[in-house]
Structure formats: structure tokens, C-alpha cells
Amino acid sequence: MKPQYQLVKVDTFDGFRSLEKDWNALYEKSEKCTIFSSWDWMFTWWEVFCTDALRKLYILCLYENDTLIGIAPFHIHSHYLKSFIQGRTLQFIASGNKSHENVTSEYLDLMVLPEKEEVMVDAVSDYLVENKKQWDFADFEYLLEDALILQCFKKSRKVTTMKIQDGVRFSILAKETFDEYKSQMGNRWRKMYDKKSRVLERDGTVKVLGTMDEQSPEKALSLLSDMHCERIRNKVGYCAFDSEKFSLFHQKILRRLAPQSKALIRTLYLDDEALAIYYVFTDKGQWHYYQSGFQSAYGNRYSPLFLLICNEIGDVVTQGKRFDFMYEPSEISYKKEQYAAEHEKMYRLYWSPKSFRLGIFNSAKFCQEQSIMMKECILNKFKLKSEEKS
Fold it and tell me: What is the model's pTM?
């Protein structure tokens, strides 16, 4: 019997909620998906941010007979800063936040049974061409090289596409032993790890507590916020946790994922003093390093965050899992030497059914980049003059 395929658009909150069971079943069978494509992550984001701007759900569900076999988890964002250029912008759910409250969701993609990938790509491409009056532009960021979304419209010229390299992903793959992992770190960092570990263990009782070992996930999140913001505010003047919606998202996602052991906050203690902390999401054999912090008063003596992360990496990779540092704007990073991380390219993808929009978008982007360069040049000139006078 020939399979019957049907693509259905879901554009209501209740419709999104009702997909939970089938979405989760498909997520478990979709080999390429990460925790950021899970129903828990995307629905939580939508609960918190759906009223943040002019956003409309645009979830495309592919059914074979009555079975859900693919999901394109889109929404349309119509309140961009550059909305006069981009117009109604198609994006993945859980992306498109304002920069100061960005809930980073990486490696998002079409979610589909492995054997139905080509069917899904064709179905989504055809649907978006047929309904091109409903959207003006598309923007998909943090894509890996094998992302299915990159294959859309290969058989059609009715949508103009543009792919650019945008940063890299740093990660550490499985190792046999911790010593094997440590041997791949830079010489300076291996020596530092050994020295700081000895000093820390000499000064008291060392322990690491997880999210559920603390009094509550909320307590662990509060401690993370305090340590993270102390360091970040000194650098840039604000912290993501200052955003009410950013904090609310993480309160909600912890309540959903911590009981499943898919969200962890790990804290390094010396006796009863918390020295360093980090926040990680994990599923499908990958640990995604999300945020961290440490007590600056102990930074020079113990390098506590460095020790915590090294030990966590060792535990993860010797279990045959990947430790993922996620996006970095450049392949020139301390993560190479300090943590022996390898990198792979990441991409950003733009679409438009009206090619002139991409032309205007590129022109505006070029002007913006030139303006930033000019500002930096002027600031450097003022800095040089100030140094000469002093």
C-alpha cells in the first residue's frame, strides 16, 4: 500500500500543547535532534516569550497515514528591529530573542524519522512555496553542516536562499580514560590542573553537588545567577538573569527537565563554601554546557571553574558521550588548549520568496558592519591620543 502523506499546520497554543505525546515519541526516534528540539524546551520557550513581540505559531506537521513522522517547528516573527527590511520572518521556535535575554537554542532543525528525511524536506519546501504570501523572510541560526533545513528548495527556484558560515561549535568526543583526555590539553593547562587540584584538596573537603542534591532546583538556579552575574556585570554591565523572562524560562525548564535528569546545575564546594558552578542540558549522549560562574575571590588560588569543568568533561567523555561547549564566534579560542576541544563549522541560513529583500538585507548588513568598524577606528584614535598625552 502506497503511503499517504499530509502536511498540517498547527498555529494555536492548544494545538501546540496537544502535540506533546506525539512530539516526544518522534523526538526519541529522530537521531539528529538535541534537547533544544524537545517539546519541553520549545513549549516552555513559547509559554514565556510568545507575547514578547508579534509572534505566530507556524508548526508544520507531516503525517504518514495517521502517524506523525516529521515536524518543522516554525513561528513567524513580525516585530524585528529591521522589520521594514525583513518583514514577516520565519524562524524556529525558541529563537529570535532580544540579545539581552537570549535563550540560546542551538542545532535546531526539521525533526523527522531518519528514513523519511527526503520526504520531509520536499513537503516543507512545497508547502512554503505554495504559501509564500504568508511570510517574507526566514532566518535560521546555529546550524550544523548536516542540518536538513539547508536542503530545502534545492528543487525549486521560487525561494532565494543564502547560507553563510557563522561561528563554530567546540566539543570533546568520547575518550577511553581521563588521562587520555588530559594528555590532549595544552602543556600549561595540564600542569595548572595538577597544581590547582593539589592545592584545593589540601585546603579542605572537596565535593560536587548536583541540582537535586541541593535543597531545590530553585536554590541551585539562584546560586548560579549570583555567581554568573557577578562576573558578567563587571564585563558588560548587565546579566541575562536581569531579564524577568529569561529567569522565568529557566525556572520553568528546570522544573520540567531536572526530574528527568536532563537539566543539571553542578556546584563545586570546598567544605561548605561554593566555589564554582555550571549549568548543563543533557540528552541523547550529549552534554551541552550552558552557563557558569565562580567566586572571584578564589579564582587565583584554585581556578575552581577550570577544575570543575575539566573533571566534568572527564566523567562525560569516558562514558562515551560528547561534551559540547556550543557556539563560539571564532575558531581561535581558549577552549582548544585549555579543554582540548575540537571545532566544526556552523552556519546561518536566510530565505526569501522575494529576492530583493535579500539584496536590501545584505546592503543594510554591510553598512552596519562599516559603521561598527568606523566607530572602533575613532575610539582607537582617541585612545592613542589619550595615551600620548599621559
Answer: 0.90
